[in-house]
C-alpha cells in the first residue's frame, strides 16, 4: 500500500506536469485508463477468464460516478497545489460515512458522526476564502471527486456482494474512462505535444497502472483496514513532490485543515470497519 500511495502521488505529479506542458485533460484521462485495459484483457485471456460482466446496470452507475470523479479530480490537480488537490480527492470516506449515517440504514455511530463533522471542518479550512476564482472552481471540482468517489465506492461494494470479481470491475472502469477521453479527443482532436508533454503522459500512465496493481495486491493479500489507513501516506508523498517540483508550501491553516481531513478519514475508515459485519 505504501508503494501504491507513492505511485499514485507520482501519477498526480504527472497529471500536473502534463497540464503544465499543455496536454489536455482528455489526453490525460485516455492515457490513465488505456494501459490498465490492455494489461487486464491480456491477463484475462491468458488465464481463460471471461471479460463479460454479469451486472451491466451496476457497472454503468459505478463507471459514470467513477469517471466523473476522475475528470473532476484531475482538473483539481491541474489547477491547485498537488497536496491540496489530492487531499480533497481523498475525502471519499467522509462522504461514505455521511451517506451511511443519513440514508444508508447504518446504526447511529458517534465516532463516524464525529469523523464527518471534523472532516468537513478540515475542508472549510482548506477552502477558506483566500483562493481566487479559478482556484475555487478547481477546489470544488476536487471536492466533488471525493463525493462522486463515494458513490462509486458504494457501487463497488454492491458489485462485490453480487459476485463480480475485482479485476472485472477495474477493467470496465478503465475501459469507460478511456472511452470518455477518446470521445472528447474525437471532437477536439489530438493536440500536438512537446517532449515534456509526452514524458508527463508516460509518467502518469505507468505510475497509475503500477499504483492500481499495488493497491489491488495490498487489499487482496493484506489487512483491508491497514491498507485503507496507509493509503493516506499519499498526502505526505504529494506534499514532498509538490515542494520539490513546484515549491508548494501550504500555509498553517491549510496544513492543519489537511491534517484534520486525514485524521477524520482514518477515524471514519476504522469506525466503518468496526461495524462492517453488522451492516
Describe the structure.
The protein has one domain (2-278). The chain is built from 12 helices and no strands. The protein has helices at residues 2-20, 25-46, 56-79, 82-89, 92-102, 110-126, 133-161, 166-188, 195-221, 224-230, 233-246, 252-275. It has 279 residues and is an all-alpha fold. The model has no long low-confidence stretch (mean pLDDT 88). The chain is globular and about 45 Å long.
Measured by DSSP, the beta-strand proportion falls in under 5%
The largest β sheet comes out as: none
Cα distance, first to last residue? 26 Å
> Structural class of the secondary elements?
mainly alpha
Question: Which stretches are low in confidence, meaning pLDDT under 50 for 5 or more residues running?
Answer: none
What's the topology here?
Layout: H1 2-20, H2 25-46, H3 56-79, H4 82-89, H5 92-102, H6 110-126, H7 133-161, H8 166-188, H9 195-221, H10 224-230, H11 233-246, H12 252-275
Structure at a glance:
By secondary structure, the chain is mainly alpha-helical. The chain is built from twelve helices and no strands.
Observed structural traits:
single chain, 279 residues, mainly alpha, 12 helices
Amino acid at each position: 500500500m505504501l508503494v501504491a500511495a507513492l505511485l499514485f502521488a507520482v501519477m498526480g505529479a504527472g497529471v500536473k506536469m502534463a497540464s503544465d506542458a499543455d496536454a489536455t485533460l482528455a489526453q490525460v484521462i485516455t492515457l490513465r485508463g488505456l494501459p490498465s485495459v490492455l494489461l487486464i484483457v491480456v491477463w484475462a485471456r491468458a488465464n481463460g477468464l471471461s471479460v463479460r460482466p454479469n451486472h451491466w446496470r451496476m457497472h454503468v452507475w459505478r463507471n459514470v460516478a467513477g469517471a466523473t470523479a476522475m475528470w473532476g479530480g484531475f482538473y483539481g490537480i491541474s489547477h491547485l497545489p498537488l497536496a491540496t488537490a489530492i487531499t480533497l480527492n481523498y475525502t471519499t470516506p467522509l462522504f461514505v460515512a455521511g451517506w451511511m449515517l443519513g440514508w444508508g440504514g447504518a446504526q447511529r455511530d458517534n465516532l463516524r458522526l464525529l469523523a464527518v463533522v471534523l472532516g468537513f471542518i478540515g475542508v472549510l479550512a482548506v477552502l477558506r476564502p483566500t483562493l481566487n476564482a479559478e482556484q475555487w472552481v478547481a477546489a470544488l471540482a476536487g471536492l466533488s471527486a471525493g463525493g462522486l468517489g463515494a458513490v462509486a465506492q458504494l457501487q463497488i461494494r454492491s458489485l462485490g456482494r453480487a459476485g463480480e470479481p475485482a479485476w472485472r470491475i477495474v477493467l470496465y472502469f478503465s475501459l469507460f474512462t478511456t472511452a470518455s477521453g477518446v470521445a472528447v479527443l474525437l471532437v477536439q482532436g489530438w493536440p500536438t505535444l512537446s517532449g515534456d508533454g509526452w514524458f508527463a503522459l508516460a509518467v502518469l500512465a505507468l505510475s497509475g497502472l503500477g499504483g492500481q496493481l499495488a493497491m489491488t495486491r495490498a487489499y487482496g493479500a493484506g489487512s483491508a483496514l491497514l491498507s485503507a489507513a496507509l493509503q493516506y501516506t499519499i498526502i505526505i508523498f504529494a506534499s514532498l513532490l509538490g515542494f520539490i517540483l513546484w515549491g508548494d508550501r501550504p500555509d498553517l491553516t491549510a496544513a492543519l485543515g489537511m491534517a484534520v481531513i486525514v485524521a477524520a478519514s482514518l477515524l471514519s475508515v476504522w469506525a466503518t470497519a468496526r461495524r462492517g459485519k453488522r451492516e
